[in-house]
Amino acid sequence: MSDAPGTDPVENLVRRAQDGDATSFAELYERFHDKIFRYIYFKTGNPNDAEDITEDVFLRMLESINSFRWKGHPFSSWLFRIAHNLIVDHFRKRSRQKNTPLDDAGDLAGATSHEIEAELDVKLAIERVHLAMEGLTDLQKEVMSLRFAAGLSVRETAEAVGKRENAVKALQHAAIKKLRVLLGALGDGTQDRIVPNWSAE
Amino acid sequence: MASERLDDIVNDCLERMAGGEPIEACLASYPDDRVELAPLLEATGTTLLAATAVTPDPMVRQQGLQRFNEAVAQRATRKRGLRLPRFIWQSPVSRPIVAGALVLLIATGMALGADVAASSSIPGDSLYWVKTSKENILMGLPKSDMSKAKDHVRLAQKRGDEMDQLLEKGMFVEAERHYGEVNRNIGQTVDLVGLRMSTNTTEMPTRGFSTANRAELDAIKASLESTWAASHSALSIHLVTAADKDRVMILGLIQRNKLIFRTLIAFLESGESPNWPPFYRTEPPRRFSR
Fold first, then answer.
1. Is the pLDDT confidence value at B199 over 70?
2. What gap in Å lies between CA A88 and CA B274, rounded to an integer?
3. For the whole model, what pTM was predicted?
């Protein structure tokens, strides 16, 4: 890929940001914030840590955006690489807080019994998936986080983890297979209540 | 090959489910693989739910954006002062030149910074040696005796100011010791203008004083008078404000200061030997005697 300005909106935003355009920085924040947050949350399991690390990711991006070069690598891969490194730093500093506490009654105050049940289903799903993810390899976890939580494309994920696209698809398939077994092993009879969001028309 | 095909199918279904399609729609697209695919897609659905169910608190998100915008603004302010066009920095030819210029700029800046900091230092400060070294270098430059005499008067004034600051800080012992430097510089001035001073009554003046360089001598005298006035005034203030135990020392400094300055000023004024000690004899200034 040439180093000339392209038509990709992210590429244009990044180029303008590299020239110091404040609006472009804000647009990059808007575009990537939730993806970065979900990716970090999926890996840390703690919303507070995810908020803090997400903020650090953007500050780090600000510091080093001029070092990013368009040489065929998507900007998102570069940005998620920063997020990955900060998560590694985070885990080095403190032990992992695995899951969101389920006894947060304050969130459910004023909700109907049906809403409470749905909320608990989601929290249980998150809990079970986080536990099941522990059974995956680091690379599988990384691919699942980038594909499922961050919503990166196969190509972007491949660039971020330094693999070919076919390898990412294979890793993804293998991880889902393993998760299915692990989620089954963690099943407590509530599994049917979790799935309907996806199986119901 | 079959495995790769299933990799693609799972990937396709994942992307469709992430876009909001239900599992059934995806299974309907691959009826031959339904049995193998269904449990995988259920696991995929559960994982997608867990991965996307949590969203950042809008308030925290907004605050984060505000802090980010502030950081962007700070970065812009920092960069505005020192920004090289990208083509200059990226060029392999100009890069070493720019790097060398930057190093030189930084080194010069550090040297100037140290010089500025040292100019206000007093004895005991870490940068005082920078100040005195610079003076020594300047005094070593070739100049006429009269010019050097003027420089020594200026140095006597500087040492007097430093002594004043030491007294201000209550460092009386150091101040008294430092007065020796005032004395030394005035002694150098005396020597350079061709005067020999002595408190020994047997060393009487032997001859008169050349007034061939009257204008320069007058300039030195004027400089001595202003230096004397400033130092006398400062010492008098310290005498009033000092504790009783320090007053004797300050009074001694005032008397020594008066003796050395007034004697030299009186001589430069009249060109004759005074009738009170310290007596001095005169010699023609070295350079003028040729």
1. no
2. 87
3. 0.51
